[in-house]
Structure of Glutamate racemase:
Amino acid sequence: MRIALVDSGIGLLAAAAAVRRLRPDASLVISSDPDGMPWGPRTPADITARTLALARAAVVTPPDALIVACNTATVSALPELRAELEPAVPVVGTVPAIKPAAASGRPLAVWATRAATESEYQRDLLRRYAAGVPAVGVPCHGLADAVERADDEAVEVAVKAAAALTPPETRTVVLGCTHYELVAERIRRHVTAVTGTEVALIGSADAVAAQALRRAGLTPAPGADPGGTLEVFASTRPAALPEVALAYPEGRLIATMATAPGPRLVP
């Protein structure tokens, strides 16, 4: 049982940890692109090419499913990934959890990168799923990069700035970048200071992990004996889990896994 994940950086840890919690016996393959970070300024064609390269490294030994644990990569590359890999390898993308957030009817804010906030893709999601619900996009300048570096001071500055842009009536915050889930409690604290009340935070990691298991024909078994191995690729090269991952509980959970034998060479 193997689940692979691709992302530009360590944002994939949130989904990887969610898979680990649902199936402690599953092996994980994580493939990120430290050489190409950040992806925000890149063109969609470049992001697609880099995502395909990461995915090809991760599926040399075919996994039961591949998670695109990145909103930007999902928008840019999901059709191409599915055309190349499916049906042999089911591919699951990551989109902002606007639909479930809007179901309550309470005012919501979508925290995302500036590019995502300005994208027609996100605006379309808001039109389709949040019609009639007070909803705004909040650009989080520099937050993903700060999380990637585990730079506490920069994370604090970025979160505080984004919280200041969040309307006081907000009651739900959608975490529209996988990196943000790694600092969710810090986001909650700052938004609560702005709104004066507890807000709900909704990410995508748990839903994406559950969907990957469904697409793979697997059922959750959180009580299974921990097993499986971890295999890591950095810009398609066999690698170790980056040290920065250990700054987050999700990374520390993944670090408890045994390392896969190898490394394998990527064609």
The two ends are 23 Å apart (CA to CA). DSSP finds eleven helices and eleven strands in the chain. The longest strand covers residues 27-32.
